[in-house]
């Protein structure tokens, strides 16, 4: 059995290794986001990254993937970023032979499977690789040392779920829910406040770590203003998980208190919320901030295979957290139920509701 | 069963995790070397490291432990280096408040257990930590980016055993041996040549990676000139392992061909050899190069516990390589035999024969 009913679930990285439920084998949703943003990143670098400024103080370009997990998506994204920077270098420095060297820092939580990440690094990579364990809600690098921050589908993660959700005497008590879908305003606000605090810390840390003229490119799930969270891709994914847990509580397979005390440490912001947080921080010029609809991969238009793939995706990402709270013995049943709910769900409407925020910032 | 009789054993990192045979629990010999060199490193930094030069181009001091394994020794060594640099900083910059930031790169082979290393990083560390997978026989970092290289008991490792040792038609064929103890000159020379090539590559790489004025401090097993290798601490350790394997081959538990094709990828140089290699490279000033006798820890003066501890130490360091070549099923028996041989050996004479080379270089 997992933790007691009065603690929040601990934050864990994705499933490691390369087994059936590993992130390495179940990261197509993120992989699709990587592809979808590939051209956008290339454009941002071509139009907005000034290598003359960056290379005036360094012969090395230092790149970070914040929340990289174990691959292979991170390697594709990094390759694209480096190739785009090299194209820009050729455009800015004609006839110069000495190209910059690249150092890439792969960052994720300490519980991430860095052994798997390292053993799957591309053998012919044109960069020096390093792994950096630690939360992006804090400093990770020395001052003024990073030229390019990249993050894909990570910035919706909170350092922890809001604590007031566990307080039975608070209007924010999140009884009978694992997230803020169809929740009272107090619960939504508790999540939004926790998220804002986390992003403030994130932006402060990155502002210190980046050189002037450095670029940060981030994409992550977003909630279009005016659309209820439950009707978004992410909201629907988690509502079905919640419903599976509630069914098991009704049948006595887990306790209600366990469900009440489990709250997902995630929040899906709107464009306006993110805009306000970046402006409040004040260290960055906003070069781009737009909602995108990356859709899903063509191989997933078959709704049944899409449903299965999404279930595996959620399992790869959240299994460790769920096991820590509910115990390992309920996990197979939970995901079997989750898969069944997906079969009955009109999930063919989901791709159109998958919305992300694509953000390009330049350090002032 | 392991690899065929015609391949050299693959190079593996130390045992990971924190189990009975893990490096983390069996690294006292290295730990003792860390302690023995603590003061020497402090002195080298105090006397020879010029922070004004280093900090004229960077606000960050970048430190590398080459061949760090999984801890805890590396954390103690790094702590000592940082404290020594901070003392030097105070001595060189009176009345200056802004101290430099430190970034520490923990390097070892990709097969090293970085997950264990990362999860045991000191929580209150005063530096930014990163892991760098890869062989020190090659480039690991961007040009001119490193201020301090440290390495303890790693530089005796070859990238591989010399290939000619496997050639039945060569005078270097290493039949009936796993190393060069009591071997013909051709075998010793093959090892020495392979070692020289590796150190040349190592020095070339570090010369490119280091900033001018940067310091490299290394200690590793050395062979005092005039003393046969078999009469040194390291030689004796490996001779007993060889003898255990030969006994098992005689009894048919492994094949003779398996022993013939297994050659330890290690070489213990003399001071003169290392001196010549550094001078040939030409990029470094030799501030110190001396033989030391670190002895063994006081807790090990009991010869029986010392024997046991050495057996565990060899197992933690070499088990993966031995399993890859001989198969896992013989490992327990091999180390039981090894332990017995140690009991019969006059190992109380060993501590006085433990000799290391302590080297301090400054990048020109």
Structure, described:
By secondary structure, chain A is α/β, with parallel strands linked by helices. The first copy, chain A, has a single domain, classed as Vaccinia Virus protein VP39 (Rossmann fold), CATH 3.40.50.150. In chain A, 41% of the residues lie in helices and 16% in strands. Chain A has ten helices and seven strands. In chain A, helix 5 crosses helix 8, helix 6 crosses helix 10 and helix 9 runs antiparallel to helix 10. The first copy, chain A, is globular and about 70 Å long. The interface between A and B is medium-sized, with 29 and 29 residues. Chains A, B: This is SABATH methyltransferase 27. Chains A, B: Pfam families: Methyltransf_7 (PF03492). Chains A, B: One of its GO terms (biological process) is methylation. Chains A, B: One of its GO terms (molecular function) is methyltransferase activity.
Name the features.
disordered N terminus; seven-stranded mixed β-sheet; 364 residues; alpha/beta; homodimer; Rossmann fold
Q: Helices and strands in order, then pairings?
A:
Two copies of one chain form a homodimer.
Chain A: H1 28-48, H2 51-54, E1 60-66, H3 73-92, E2 101-108, H4 114-119, E3 128-133, E4 146-152, H5 185-209, E5 210-221, H6 233-250, H7 256-260, H8 271-281, E6 284-292, H9 303-326, H10 331-344, E7 356-363
Parallel strand pairs in A: 1-2, 1-4, 2-3, 4-5
Antiparallel strand pairs in A: 5-7, 6-7
Helix pairs in contact in A: 1-3, 5-8, 6-10, 9-10
């Amino acid at each position: 059995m997992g933790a007691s009913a009065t603690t929040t679930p601990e934050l864990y990285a994705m499933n490691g290794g390369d087994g059936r439920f590993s992130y390495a084998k179940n990261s197509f949703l993120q992989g699709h986001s990587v592809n979808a943003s590939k051209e956008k990143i290339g454009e941002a670098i071509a139009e907005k990254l000034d290598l003359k400024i960056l290379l005036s103080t360094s012969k090395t370009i230092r790149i970070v993937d914040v929340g990289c997990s174990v691959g292979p998506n991170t390697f594709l994204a990094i390759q694209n970023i480096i190739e785009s920077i090299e194209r820009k270098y050729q455009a800015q420095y004609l006839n110069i032979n000495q190209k910059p060297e690249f150092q890439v820092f792969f960052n994720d939580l300490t519980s991430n499977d860095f052994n798997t990440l390292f053993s799957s690094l591309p053998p012919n990579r044109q960069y020096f690789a390093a792994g950096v364990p630690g939360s992006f809600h804090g400093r990770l690098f020395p001052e003024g040392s990073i030229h390019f921050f990249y993050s894909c589908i990570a910035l919706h993660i909170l350092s922890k779920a809001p604590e007031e959700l566990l307080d039975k005497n608070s209007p924010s008590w999140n009884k009978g829910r694992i997230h803020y879908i169809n929740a009272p305003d107090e619960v939504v606000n508790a999540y939004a406040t926790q998220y804002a605090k986390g992003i403030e810390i994130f932006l402060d840390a990155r502002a210190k770590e980046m050189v002037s003229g450095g670029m940060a490119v981030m994409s992550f799930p977003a909630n279009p203003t005016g659309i209820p969270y439950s009707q978004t891709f992410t909201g629907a994914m988690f509502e079905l998980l919640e419903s599976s847990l509630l069914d098991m509580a009704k049948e006595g397979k887990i306790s209600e208190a366990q469900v009440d005390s489990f709250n997902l440490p995630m929040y899906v912001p709107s464009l306006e919320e993110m805009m306000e947080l970046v402006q409040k921080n004040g260290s960055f010029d906003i070069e781009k901030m737009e909602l995108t609809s990356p859709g899903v991969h063509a191989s997933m238009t078959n709704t049944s295979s899409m449903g299965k793939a999404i279930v595996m995706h959620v399992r790869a990402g959240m299994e460790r957290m769920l096991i820590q709270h509910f115990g390992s013995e309920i996990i197979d049943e939970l995901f079997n139920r989750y898969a069944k709910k997906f079969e009955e769900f009109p999930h063919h409407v989901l791709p159109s509701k998958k919305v992300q925020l694509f953000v390009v910032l330049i350090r002032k």
